[in-house]
Write a structure and sequence with these properties.
globular
Length: 325
């Protein structure tokens, strides 16, 4: 073999080795990618399995009695039941509240139906002072739930609100949607008519409050008392200040929107110390605030209820049963 032939042979061999090296590198990369993808799938699968293993299997049995309270809250328990009291503070625009409902809503229904728990639903609006549309969503959802309570279907409507919770920051809970969801429940045409009429009234109040009254009140408060002081005030305190400084909140009197705002303010003053109300969801067992590991898991909440003594409901039933009567 001549020198030229040997040179061409060496070049062909060099090219062949380069091709084999590239092919080997590609095979290695594909193996690494495949392993990484398998690990990701495994992690996601395990996470999904763990998440769903801690959710209830779904409760489809009868509900315990629903009793509307004087403050607009609702107690789910049959008459005469003595059991631990679970209080659930939730805002219908709160994503974590939705997660709590999806995780433990069926557990609470089942425990109440079995007489093993008294469930006290306490809707609030911690987002009422946020910018529109968050504030409007929160208040409209809460007002609609309160109207549903007048007609004895609070728990069912509560489920629908969380199932259809608007994405935070996007406008939702329109009056048409809220009316449509109520229409899907076992209610009469007369109840639907009364629900729709009251909802229209409340929606107008929410719009006035979030788009006109509160912005003007907040602007004046910033100028008069400053951001530092304003930042320490809950909404009910701000409304009290406003009433003394040219911002009359009387249009909220007698409305479910105003009732919801008052309920939120009461939550901040009802508890103190380690039990202080700081946001939603807040779940109390016999007046003691549960930590997230307990409240946000089926096993944790179930074990807490099972180990607790009977409690006492601190509110009183509404004598006339609400507007539905």
């Amino acid at each position: 073999m001549g020198s030229e032939a040997r040179k061409r042979a060496r070049e062909r061999l060099k090219e062949q080795r380069a091709k084999e090296k590239k092919a080997a590198a590609r095979r290695k990369n594909l193996i690494v990618i495949g392993v990484a993808a398998a690990v990701i799938v495994l992690i996601v699968g395990i996470g999904y399995a763990v998440l769903n293993s801690d959710r209830g299997e779904g409760y489809t049995g009868p509900l315990a009695a629903q009793t509307l309270q004087e403050d607009g809250s609702v107690v789910m328990a049959d008459d005469g039941v003595e059991a631990p009291v679970i209080e659930v503070y939730a805002d219908y625009q709160c994503p974590a509240c939705r997660q709590f409902e999806l995780t433990n809503g069926d557990l609470l229904k089942e425990r109440a139906a079995q007489g093993e728990a008294i469930v006290h639903f306490r809707p609030v609006s911690i987002f009422a002072q946020q910018q529109v549309p968050i504030s409007g969503n929160s208040l409209r959802g809460g007002a609609a739930a309160r109207i549903a309570a007048d007609h004895g279907v609070f728990v069912e409507y509560n489920d629908l609100l969380f199932e259809n919770q608007p994405t935070e920051g996007r406008e939702g809970f329109s009056t048409d949607q809220l009316k449509e969801w109520f229409a899907g429940l076992e209610t009469s045409p007369e109840q639907q008519e009364r629900f729709d009429a009251r909802l229209d009234e409340e929606a107008a109040v929410v719009t006035e409050f979030t788009e006109e009254f509160l912005p003007a009140l907040t602007e004046d408060a910033l100028q008069e008392i400053g951001q530092e002081t304003l930042g320490t005030m809950v909404l009910t305190d701000l409304l009290t200040w406003g009433a003394d400084n040219g911002h009359d909140p009387a249009f909220l009197d007698g409305t479910y929107t105003g009732e919801l705002i008052d309920a939120t303010g009461s939550a901040y003053t009802r508890y103190s110390g380690d039990n202080a109300f700081r946001g939603t969801p807040a779940v109390y067992l016999n007046g003691v605030l549960l930590d997230n590991n307990t409240a946000m898991t089926v096993r944790g909440l179930s074990e807490a209820i099972a180990s607790a003594s009977p409690g006492k409901v601190e509110t009183q039933p509404l004598d006339n049963g609400g507007d539905a009567q």
